[in-house]
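User: Show me a protein chain along with its predicted structure.
Assistant: Here is one chain, sequence first, then structure tokens.
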Amino acid sequence: MNINRLKVNRLTNPLGFEMNSLSFSWTVEETDAKKQQWARVEVAADESFQRLLWDSGEDAGLSSVDCPVTLDLQPRTRYWWRVTVQGDNGEQATSAAAWFETSKMGEEWAGKWIAPSLESSVHPLLRRSFFLEGEPVRARVYAVGLGLYELYANGEKAGDEYLAPGCTAYDRWLQYQTYDVTGLLHQGQNTLGAMLGNGWAKGRFGFGGIPASYETGEKGFPAEAFAEQFLLRLELRVLLADGREVVLGFPSVGATENLMLAACGAKGTTVIANAAREPEIEDLQNFLNACGGDVRGAGTSTVVIRGGRVRNGGIYQLDRN
């Protein structure tokens, strides 16, 4: 007797789903038994099943096509489960462990919506570099982009999603995706980026109407039905080997630069928390300070700007080898 095809809500090892309700299913194969005498489903917080969270016991009424399970699920958490079945001929087997992992489940995002400071017709690549002080043992990216987006980590495509985030009623709700990027990150310097393009919420939509023209720049109709600019929201959570968790909300370089420029022209002191840390941010800080500004903290996650001090011009020479 073998127990295969373990699924949660009709999905095999689902990663990053809301899981408002749970339905388990499985298939019993390679047995002479005519029917199931009883089944037992166990759900645990660990793969070794030392921390059991739910145990049906030996229950003759459990259905292999729809076994409801009630659990108080936590966000961003992996759960392990297995099933034991005994047939009417006395044959018994226990499945290999399967898992499911919950999504953010309505919790607040660490990342904010960002948009490129480019014409809406330009398809951008938004990226951010970051440094991991230890070896990553678990890393997840939660992401959504408009119109279409693809996620990359250190130059490699993350996940097997295409045409994400999918077609939905964008004026009512947005789908976001969960990516396991553990194998794409490493100790030291890393880069995460997303390519954005027209599709679904932004750009040309549907098969009818008036086609767009790249020669004249006409958008066609219908177009920009739900979004007039490219948008991206990312959150990276990395668990390091020493137990520390790194959480990055991923502001883009352009977004940080725009805030720095605006703050220099404003009155008072502005603090940019969770700023981008790329070398371009340090270059802009040095240039603004050469113009009489008071900008500090570039290269770190917090940039402080005292506004109203920038003069009409200044000189800063880039020195990179």
